[in-house]
Amino acid sequence: MIPGISRRHCLVSLAAGPAAWLAVPGAAHAGGQLEEPLMDSVRTALSSAIANQAPPEPEFVTTEARLHYLRWLGTMSDRLRRRKPDWEVRRDFLQTVWYESKRAGLDVSLVLGLIQVESAFRKFAVSSVGARGYMQVMPFWTRVIGDGDPGKLFHMQTNLRFGCVILRHYMDRERGDLFMTLGRYNGSRGRAPYPNAVFAAQRHWAFSG
What we know:
Elements: H1 7-10, H2 17-22, H3 40-51, H4 63-80, H5 87-104, H6 108-119, H7 140-144, H8 156-173, H9 178-186, H10 193-204
Helix pairs in contact: 4-5, 5-8, 6-10, 8-9, 9-10
């Protein structure tokens, strides 16, 4: 069982959901986050989280932690090679995913699974409802908590920063329930196909080294 998923959610059938979501290579599957009223305190907190433009350089307290990261980077690089053949592009992407996931308190494998389902790792993916980039962020978020420029969602770190901050916000709203969190992220809250597809993809990016 994946941590954070209740037994009730694990019993939802995977027979059709993930296969349907993962069958089309390169497709952008985002249903799109729904714009909801935000309390001023939440808006301020999210805006602050987005605005902090620290460079995505992982920092490690111990040598073992750094070695763990390097083992993870090597393993993930091998798994991502087919989708991103250039080593430097692959390294920069994985380093930024690691940084933004950890910064938002998210499981890196969950974020990678979400990216696989949302955009198939395509930087310039656009869905039928206008969601953009790796994490298929809806443009309204740049107006709500950013500077109003949706074009910036095609910038790698900006897209990953927005996506991780939004996912963390939804996780807090759903009190840690990943099934409901992912449904809210996709605009399909309470329905199984999208969360199940992300959970299935997440298993490919799991790392125990």
